[in-house]
Amino acid sequence: MKSNTYRSMTDAFVSSRRNFLKTSGALSAGALLGQPTLWADDRKKAKKPAKPKTNVKEALQQPVGRLALPGVAPGKVVEVENSAVKKNDAIDKPVLNEMFLSGLQALTAKNAQQYAARWFTKGDIIGIKVNPVGAGLINTHLELVDIVIDWLTANGIKREQIIIWDRFDYMLADAGFTPDRFPGVGIEGLQTMDEKAIDNKTKDTSRWMDDSGKHISLPNFDQEVYYWADVDGPQDVNYLNQHVVNSKYSYFGKLLTKRLTKIINIPVFKNTGNGVSMATKNMGYAVICNTGRLHRPLFFDVCTEVLAFPVIRNKLVLNIIDGIRGQYDGGPGANAKFIYPLNKLYLATDPFALDRVGHEHMVQKRLAMNVRVNQHPRFTEYLRYAQRLGLGIGELQKIDHTYIKQS
After folding, report:
1. What separation in angstroms does the CA of 303 have from each of 102, 107, 108, 137?
2. Burial level of 380, CB count in 10 A (0-12/13-18/19+)?
3. Which of 225, 313, 377, 389 has its CA 20 to 30 A from that of 261?
4. DSSP state of 299
5. How far apart (Å, rounded) are the C-alpha atoms in residues 215 and 192?
6. How buried is 285 (Cβ within 10 angstroms: 0-12 exposed, 13-18 middle, 19+ buried)?
């Protein structure tokens, strides 16, 4: 396949993977997790490149279900704060549970049992999308996932009908999402990746490439369901190790297309440059492979367009930002010096409204901490784009924002 000159990957990762997860070196964070590139960086003068063509129009022509985005509460965001949720670095689970249940009731005007009965059936296979990046620092709290699972099982969903998932299998394990910690619940990464190859410690491809020269995780992706963008992936082996394919196609995981019937999204409160890495990015860059090629020309738009596909739009029914801790700079990877107690949960069925509120609060925090902030509208344009597509509410003044202070 002919390649263009676009490169979104560095040739090598300069720190080990575990050190990266702890300290989030800028080089590795940009390559693996995705950061706004030159056009989105206010310190650069580069002009944003022309947007490549994509197949989002085809996605928008597909039928939508009764629970399709923006969900049952378009434009509504509930923020719950309780300073007692974490003391001495330990989660108070009864407090966290009360935050969650209060937030649900405020979001839906129903109690938690009524909500579960309306949005889930006993035949559903429910995927809980976590953010495992920054293990031990800023990843989705295991205790919050416990509470969501307990809520589901209390309302007729069996543990074997629940799958905790992310794109990369090793990140789940590092963050504590293991079968031993969550007995009876599925734990699945969409793909594997050779860590030694990422660190440039080996050129051995046997850990991730089969005899035909294809990534061993390719069968995990549905080649009939894809996000197409007129951008080639880099043609180097390291890129293929991380991204499975390097064509103009980004395939959705079969877990999403073949098995899950509902999705609960539990991102964390953190930045990515002057933008945020919260609800929409936690989905957009996790459900497909071959994302590195998209960073430069489509960075934020991916967070809108990928969610337009029925495999996500019809299944994503609840978003909960884990704001027990927040990170206001150095994202999307973890950087301990910018992490602070936030003591909040944010809930919404509309992930775009959720990110718009999250973005506003992130800007306020960054300004308060004397971080240089670029408030150019381009950092929230993808949310208004979602509004134009009918996927959610992206204009702050149109969002119904409820704040609950418990303690």
Report:
1. 28, 23, 25, 24
2. buried
3. 389
4. T
5. 9
6. buried
